[in-house]
Design brief:
Blueprint: E1 2-3, H1 7-18, E2 26-27, H2 30-40, E3 45-47, H3 56-64, E4 74-78, H4 83-91, E5 96-99, H5 108-115
Parallel strand pairs: 1-2, 1-3, 3-4, 4-5
Helix pairs in contact: 2-3
């Protein structure tokens, strides 16, 4: 599952993940992401932090309150790159914190496979 408010990035991520056969679902906001999490129980979440309204930290906090959702690995994929941002995400249960400016989109499928058993 990918929670990302940028339509262009959702399209790019979809292509990169579905080409090697990774099924993806998308949410364009934290609110929709929370609703999809409850319904779909995905095996992995790529999560943006900066979104209008509720943010990715809200999604992480919500997931930690649910014993089933708390077991889903979350990879934060954001434009934030400060240590304090990474620490907050990791304290809320993120498995990795990746900066959009430093990650190659072509590596998303590899990263996904590393976290899904």
């Amino acid at each position: 599952m990918i929670v990302e408010d940028d339509a262009f990035l959702r399209k790019v991520y979809k292509k990169e993940l579905e080409e090697p056969g990774i099924e993806t679902i998308f949410a364009e906001s934290a609110e929709k992401g929370i609703a999809l999490l409850q319904k779909e129980k995905p095996s992995l979440v790529f999560l943006d932090i900066l979104m209008p309204g509720r943010d990715g930290y809200d999604v992480l906090a919500f997931m930690q309150k649910d014993p089933i959702l708390a077991t889903i690995p979350v990879i934060v994929l954001t434009n934030l790159n400060q240590q304090v941002d990474m620490e907050r995400a990791m304290q809320l249960g993120a498995k990795e914190f990746l900066s959009k400016g430093e990650i190659k989109v072509g590596d998303l499928a590899k990263i996904a496979r590393e976290h899904v058993t």
